[in-house]
Design goal:
The complex is a heterotrimer of chains A (667), B (286) and C (183). Chain A is an alpha/beta fold and 667 residues long. Chain A has 18 helices and 34 strands. In chain A, the strands form twelve sheets. In chain A, strands 10-7-6-18-29 form a five-stranded parallel beta sheet. A five-stranded parallel beta sheet of chain A has the order 20-27-21-22-23. Chain B is of the alpha/beta class and 286 residues long. Chain B has two domains: 116 residues, Up-down Bundle (Glutathione S-transferase Yfyf (Class Pi), Chain A, domain 2), CATH 1.20.1050.140; 141 residues, 3-Layer(aba) Sandwich (Rossmann fold). In chain B, the strands form two sheets. Chain B has a four-stranded parallel beta sheet, with helices on both faces. Chain B has a three-stranded parallel beta sheet with strand order 5-6-7, sandwiched between helices. The relative contact order of chain B is 0.15. Chain C has two domains: 95 residues, Fumarate Reductase Iron-sulfur Protein, Chain B, domain 2 (Orthogonal Bundle); 81 residues, no CATH class. Helices cover 60% and strands 0% of the residues of chain C. Chain C is built from twelve helices and no strands. In chain C, helix 1 packs across helix 3 and helix 8 packs across helix 12. In chain C, 49% of the residues are buried. Classes of the chains: A alpha/beta (667), B alpha/beta (286), C mainly alpha (183).
């Protein structure tokens, strides 16, 4: 016979007002197996918990039901109280008679009757609970950070400074991401590279950071605390150890007309190149599509010029495996390329703006390269078509953002700020230039952001026109911009020398594929999904995988850096424990009755079930079976629902328990 | 190839040169046109400006006739007609209640299953390659500005034809004929449409800009696929010249005219001698 | 306010409340330079239930229904349909602007012509329109304008003295009557 204790809470007036707790207590005391039934005003309070502990010891209780609020609130509290009194914490259940009863009903008679039924069910359940121990999973205390932009750099440094090893994987030849290509950052107008490169150098030199650049994650196996990640290190054709980064090779390379990715297509690079002088690592790569030797067997001048003999034309891609315990995704963003050529059939681009058709219509990142002192024009604002200095520039906000018909429904958050910044940078360089901005709203909510935008207008003379632009055409070398001024109620036509489009921020290419490898959800735009939009912004529903930066949603640098440190903090919390403890309420397979149909394997959303074999004592094969990995199982119960032979059951929510709960109602 | 045919009032009225051109060219390309029995006006601009139900009922009557007579596809060479027909199909498919109501109004059952196509789509069905192979007289001295007007591509959600901002379907055909279409900025800007009589000033102003831009970008003729555009650019060209004080002298061809000429058909059978503007093609500047 | 805003929305089968007044319609409208109210202002009036102002303006009859606004609207508002609704409403209420009475006269004459013949008889239309317009505002130049065009059109076989008529004209009349019953 069970010795169950039922403790009914008044929760002040929250429960007692609508539920007759006295009658509940008296009725429940009659249920077979209930040894103790009491009620108290605040069960979660110190005296309340003390009374539970005392009763557990006094009456040698082997099961505990606390009838009170939601388990989300206090299940942990009461489990701890039980454990302190020597009762296994998994022999504790909460009957929710507040959110599920007193808070949602108006009739005291009916509410009391319902509360009694709810508690009765909980008693039935706890009667069949097993005493469980938390599952301990060993943990590799190394982290993987995917993406070497400012967010990835921050996360890697924080984890490494906390004393753990970090593997940082970056797709481009150098870390730095988009921030390395910016000119000046709002609202301080700091030189972007000047504030970023010291961090980049720190990463390059940190004893606990293992940097793989020109590399991509190809596959992920395992589970939280125990990931095995395959990384493809693309062939650089340059020996990283022999090479000194002297630059003799790229000085003599004859393949010049390759559009520079770092310069957003506004300038050229060689076939053997370093993306920018402050690159980390400061070692070149060879673009095999542009290299005359790798394509046709001609040239090879770089190898001849290289003193340390670091050029290796027979280099191959290398796939390595890194073992890590946690992963942080920091893959950043790209801009919406608004030409007709789209990766997604629902997107059509904006043919009316002439991007890709007219050379002097460029996007925000391209303007950054023009304005940047290390850019293709040395920081001089020049028209891509003829190199002339533009005397009138039109900046257009919201290109592809806030547009459910042709673009993204969301706001890209940073454009209002960088458009103001662009206007300011332009005016600082071209004093007699005219900066015209077409906008719908001005979103400047960050610290010192509003003042920054006002400065662009009041001190630097940027002219703001409230309205969208409908069409851009080119006549006689000028770009004719047809927009509207809705405040005046009239169309506005401006003949500009250049147009800069603030195109929408989208997640980087390949982010969805990476998310799928990690079992992280993505939204309809490809942004990675957080566990909870308010309270858990850097965690994902995949245990051990965290996100930060623009891969999650459009954001600016301060937010990306803050999220990166937050994600690093989460990893440090994980690693601060010796082992990972996981909730033991997981599924398990009865391997004797399992028919090995593997429906559960296919159904499990967490890929927590494996195909395994049952062997005898001598290692001979007996039968196939499904086997749940308790380290990955999230206790959702999907496998239980789909198993045709009823061979899987869920600890704490067994079929027997659920049926008994239902039957107790029918009585 | 057989296809249903809805000429519309313009092609049986003052734009009968367009019908001559369409019939002659499509016959030469092996397309047989079956004219819809006792078709009625689609309502044009007047219906949708004055009464919504009428603007659905008039096209619906024609669609119902097409269904009754078993046409799965129907060519409407006038983009206003094809636009009204396509809009009606959408309205009817969105609301079964409306379908029932309209069926009573037009005294015929209607489902809106007939596919309505424009002249360029029919030419694409024939196949640009086939057209290219059939060319006897390449149009190498032609530098057309391909003018789409408004209603061939807009609204894209309903018409789903070509790109509404930078279309290229006419250029593709024109190139197959050996001509070199120019890149210009008024491909889809409105000519004033049905306002020729209702509001002439509008047409003069808008159509003038189109002719001027075509010339500015090196075109020596304009090619259209719409009878209203043709009237506004061709019949009204003299008025435009007088009112704007400019000289255009640009031939305005229908797309079917150019194909017909390239296939070796004559100006008379294509109705080109009925155009108002008859000017030699300006010499090509390379 | 809620019901009147939906009046135009319901007539036009579009959600005018979705419009966030970005002005792209106005920016792309070929007639905006000569309109007394901008397209986005007309939608705004519809939103606020103040379409009374909109149905009295000239802009709605200057609209050429080119669909540029509808095509480019980021909120999928069918502004061209809103213009149609405003036109329909202005005739229902008799509040159309004086400045556009010729345009309205033309459209009415057009529909009348179709009702009688089933297809457009151009010569008849021109005659009717010019007569109505002349009687409306005694404009002699309008009466004789385009008169020189007639012989040129005849020369080119484009002028049909006797227009085409549909065989079953009865059904056409009945369709018209059923649709325009409320007027």
């Amino acid at each position: 016979m069970s010795r169950i204790g039922v403790f009914t809470c008044w929760c002040g007036e929250n429960i007692a007002r609508m539920v007759d707790v006295q009658r509940v207590t008296e009725t429940i005391a009659q249920v077979p197996g209930v040894r103790v039934a009491v009620n108290y005003k605040y069960m979660c309070s110190d005296p309340g918990q003390a009374s539970i502990r005392d009763k557990i010891v006094e009456e040698k209780l082997d099961g505990l039901v606390v009838a009170a609020c939601s388990p989300h609130m206090h299940l942990k509290t009461f489990r701890r109280a039980a454990a302190a009194a020597g009762l296994n914490p998994y022999l504790v259940e909460m009957a929710n008679i507040r959110e599920h009863c007193s808070w949602v009903h108006k009739d005291k008679e009916l509410a009391t009757a319902k509360a009694i039924e709810i508690i009765r069910m909980a008693v039935e359940k706890v009667r069949r609970n097993h005493a469980l121990q938390p599952i301990r999973v060993p943990m590799t205390k190394r982290a993987l950070v995917v993406g070497g932009g400012v967010a990835g750099i921050q996360a890697a440094l924080d984890i490494a400074d906390a004393g753990y090893e970090v593997v940082l994987v970056e797709r481009d030849p150098s870390i730095g991401g988009k921030m390395a290509g910016l000119s000046e950052t709002f609202p301080t107008l700091d030189c972007s590279q000047c504030i970023l490169t010291p961090r980049m150098v720190e990463v390059g030199q940190h004893p606990r950071i293992k940097l793989h650049t020109y590399s991509e994650v190809e596959g992920v196996e395992g589970f939280v605390g125990n990931f095995k990640v395959q990384i493809r290190k693309k062939a650089r054709y340059v020996d990283m150890i022999k090479c000194t980064g002297c630059g003799d090779c790229w000085a003599v390379c004859p393949s010049k007309k390759n559009l520079s990715e770092f310069d957003q297509g506004m300038g050229y690079r060689k076939a053997i190149y370093i993306p920018f002088p402050q690159a980390v690592p400061a070692r070149p790569v060879i673009d095999k599509e542009a290299c005359l030797y790798l394509k046709n067997g001609k040239c090879g001048v770089c190898a001849k010029k290289c003193v340390p003999q670091a050029i290796n034309f027979s280099d191959q891609d290398e796939v390595i495996t890194e073992e890590v315990g946690a992963v942080i995704v920091a893959t950043g963003y790209r801009l919406y390329n608004i030409t007709k050529d789209q990766d997604n059939s629902k997107l059509t681009g904006y043919g009316e703006y002439g991007y890709g058709l007219y050379k002097d219509v460029i996007d925000g990142l391209q303007f950054e390269r023009l304005a940047s002192a290390s850019g293709p024009t040395g920081g001089a604002i020049k028209r891509p078509s003829d190199g002339a200095e533009p005397k009138k520039i039109v900046f257009i906000s919201c290109v592809g953002s806030r547009d459910e018909q042709h673009g993204m429904t969301y706001c890209s958050k940073i454009c209002c700020m960088y458009v103001a910044k662009h206007a300011m940078l332009y005016k600082h360089k071209v004093h007699d230039g005219e900066a015209h901005i077409f906008y719908m709203d001005i979103r400047a909510g960050g610290k010192n952001y509003e003042e920054f935008v006002r400065r662009a207008i009041e001190q630097d003379g940027a002219v703001y026109h409230r309205g969208r632009v409908s069409k851009i055409t080119q006549e006689n070398g000028k770009l004719v911009v047809r927009g509207a001024d809705t405040l005046l109620g009239q169309p506005v036509t401006i003949e500009a020398d250049m147009v800069v489009l603030a195109s929408a921020m989208r997640p980087s290419e390949g982010a969805t594929r990476l998310a799928q490898m990690l079992n992280v959800g993505v939204d309809e735009f490809g942004f990675l999904s957080e566990s909870h939009p308010k309270l858990r912004p850097v965690e994902t529903n995949a245990a051990g995988v965290f996100i930060c930066g623009a891969c999650h949603a459009p954001k600016d640098i301060p937010e990306a850096v803050a999220q990166a440190s937050a994600a690093a903090g989460k990893v440090a919390i994980m690693f601060a424990n010796e082992e990972l403890t996981r909730d033991p309420e997981v599924a398990s397979v009865n391997e004797l009755t399992c028919a090995a149909c593997f429906t559960c394997v296919r159904a499990c959303p967490y890929t927590a079930i494996e195909k395994a074999m049952v062997l005898d004592g001598r290692g001979n094969f007996i039968k196939n079976t499904a086997r749940v990995n308790p380290g990955l199982c999230m206790g959702c119960g999907t496998c239980v629902a789909v198993c045709p032979s009823k061979s899987v059951d869920l600890e704490g929510f067994s079929e027997e328990q659920i049926y008994s709960q239902v039957e107790s109602l029918a009585l | 190839m057989q296809i249903g045919y809805y000429p519309g009032c313009a092609l049986h009225g003052s734009s009968n040169d367009y019908e001559m051109s369409v019939r002659a060219t499509l016959t030469a390309l092996g397309v047989q046109l079956k004219e819809l029995d006792d078709w009625i006006c689609c309502g044009a601009t007047a219906a949708h400006s004055i009464n919504k139900k009428l603007s659905i009922a008039l096209p619906a009557r024609n669609l119902a006739i097409a269904e009754r007579d078993g046409y799965s596809e129907m060519l409407a060479p006038c983009p206003l007609c094809s636009n009204e027909l396509m809009k009606t199909i959408k309205e009817l498919s969105d609301s079964p209640a409306l379908r029932r109501e309209i069926a009573e109004v037009i005294e015929l059952p209607i489902e809106g299953k007939t596919q309505v196509v424009n002249i360029i789509q029919v030419l694409q069905m024939v196949g640009v390659e086939r057209i290219r192979e059939a060319v006897k007289r390449p149009l190498s001295e032609f530098r057309p500005a391909c003018y789409y007007g408004c209603l061939l591509t807009r609204p894209a959600k309903i018409l789903k034809f070509d790109d509404p901002e930078q279309p290229g379907s006419m250029e593709e055909i024109v190139e197959a004929l050996g001509a070199k279409p120019v890149q210009w900025n008024y491909k889809t800007e409105c000519c004033g449409a049905g306002m020729t009589m209702a509001n002439e000033d509008t047409v003069i102003s808008l159509s003038h800009k189109i002719l001027a831009n075509a010339e500015a970008h090196g075109a020596n003729c304009v090619v259209v696929a719409c009878p209203m555009c043709h009237v506004n650019l061709d019949m009204k060209q003299r008025d435009i010249e007088r009112r704007q004080g400019t000289r255009h002298q640009l031939m305005v061809y229908y797309i079917s005219d150019l194909i017909g000429l390239a296939l070796g058909l004559g100006e008379h059978e294509l109705g080109i001698d009925r155009h108002f503007v008859s000017a030699p093609l300006a010499a090509v500047k390379e | 306010m809620e019901t009147t805003a939906n009046l135009i929305g319901e007539m036009a089968h579009t959600a005018v409340e979705d419009c966030y007044q970005c002005g792209k319609c106005t920016a792309g409208c070929p007639m905006a330079d000569v309109m007394d109210l901008m397209p986005n202002q007309i939608v705004r009036l519809a939103q606020l239930g103040e379409e009374g102002r909109a149905v009295a303006c000239g802009a709605i009859w200057l609209c050429v229904s080119c669909q540029t606004c509808t095509q480019r609207c980021p909120k999928s508002v069918d502004i061209a349909a809103v213009m149609d609704a405003m036109r329909q409403l202005s005739l229902e209420r008799g509040t159309a602007s004086e400045s556009v009475k010729r345009t309205i006269a033309f459209q009415r004459a057009f529909l009348d012509n179709i009702r009688r013949n089933g297809r457009l008889n151009e010569l008849e239309l021109v005659g009717q329109y010019k007569t109505m317009a002349f009687l409306g505002d005694v404009s002699v130049p309008l009466l004789f304008k385009d008169a020189l065009l007639a012989p040129k059109m005849m020369q080119r076989g484009k002028l049909h003295l006797i227009g085409e008529k549909v065989k079953d004209r009865g059904v056409v009349r009945r369709i018209f009557d059923r649709c325009m019953r409320q007027e």
